[in-house]
Design goal:
Layout (H helix, E strand, L loop, with lengths): L3 E10 L5 E5 L10 E2 L2 E3 L6 H13 L2 E14 L4 E13 L10 E4 L14 H8 L3 E4 L5 H13 L4 E4 L6 H18 L2 E4 L13 E4 L1 H6 L2 H6 L4 E6 L2 H9 L4 E4 L16 H8 L6 E4 L7 H6 L4 E4 L9
Helix pairs in contact: 3-4
Length: about 325
């Protein structure tokens, strides 16, 4: 069995909101590419301990505030790695390339996957995806728009417009209004509709239900390569389909018992952690969760919390 190289890496936020990125020396594996600073765990070392040690050795800084971002299992032709990536939002010291590496300050939205080793690329997606994900309830348009704005003010950064009760024309009209509101607030909007709806509404992307995920093809993904794409998943097979299609994220549900689908058997936290651990893409927990459980989701390898009632009231 190939030994897994466990690596702790850091997405380091600077005071201006940009990220501190380094370039790998040419003589190393994947040399010349950009990378997120970090290094291998030593025997009996935790990822947190390795993170602190590596950043002090490489950059001369000591992280003082950090949280899990994403864990990525990845097989290179010559090695197998597990990237344990942390979001570092505060540190002591002034960064410097102590090992002769060049350092860059880059905007998150300007990061290009091709500039990084393949195993690092899901980190970019995770950094660009908000942690709080709102799925809109089935409400009259005016009422939905009234309730959406305070949800955005409270930190929601990703909105899935789910309105199955509307015909395509009414859905399109509502989508344009939701887009205008979300863009003023800096939030992304995903349509819960057939991908062809993007020809009529220039939203940020599409969320695929389980049926559309089964019908989706690599050619469809290539055609929509500039759009955010995610899918609803309930088991390992669907998660692997989402990953093979190179979708940007998956919703995994139900984690807990939920009011909207009380008949559905919840996965539970142990199964959620086990399923997420196999994935290379960000996975949101959905089903019976509240925003207060975000830290629990992160600790178990998830990316964030998705839901309806936790962010916006469904009552008329």
């Amino acid at each position: 069995m190939t030994k897994v190289v466990h690596v702790a890496a850091a997405a380091i936020y600077l005071d201006d909101g940009r990220l501190l990125i380094s370039r790998r020396p040419a003589h190393l594996h994947q040399g010349g590419l950009l990378e997120f600073p970090g290094g291998k765990l030593e025997p009996d070392e935790t990822p947190q301990q390795a993170l602190v040690r590596e950043l002090e050795e490489e950059l001369g800084i000591v992280p003082t505030q950090f949280e899990p971002l994403i864990r990525i299992p990845y097989d290179y032709p010559d090695k197998r790695v597990l990237l344990d990536v942390w979001r570092v939002t505060a540190f002591e010291g002034e960064p410097e390339g102590r090992e002769g590496q060049l350092l860059y300050r880059l905007d998150i939205d300007m990061l290009e996957a091709a500039d990084f080793p393949a195993a690092n690329r899901p980190i970019i997606t995770a950094l660009q995806l908000p942690q709080l994900y709102l799925i809109t309830p089935e409400l009259p348009a005016e009422l939905l728009l009234q309730r959406l704005e305070p949800a955005l003010d409270s930190g929601v950064g990703l909105v899935q417009l789910r309105a199955n009760h509307l015909d395509d024309r009414s859905y399109r009209d509502l989508a344009e209004q939701v887009l205008a509101l979300c863009r003023r607030q800096g939030a992304k909007v995903l349509l819960n509709r057939h991908p062809s709806m993007l020809e009529q509404v220039d939203a940020d992307g599409i969320h695929l239900n389980s049926r559309l995920l089964a019908e989706f093809s690599p050619a469809d993904r290539q055609r929509l390569k500039t759009k955010w794409l995610g899918a609803s998943c309930h088991n390992a097979q669907q998660l692997h389909s989402a990953q093979q299609l190179e979708l940007d994220y998956a919703l995994l549900s139900p984690v807990c018992t939920t009011e909207t689908h009380p008949e559905a058997q919840p996965l539970g936290w142990s199964a959620f952690e086990s399923l997420v651990a196999q994935m290379q893409l960000p996975v949101y927990g959905l089903g019976g969760l509240s925003r207060e459980q975000l830290s629990q989701v992160l600790d178990l390898g998830g990316h964030g919390v998705a839901g309806i009632g936790t962010f916006i009231s469904r009552k008329l």
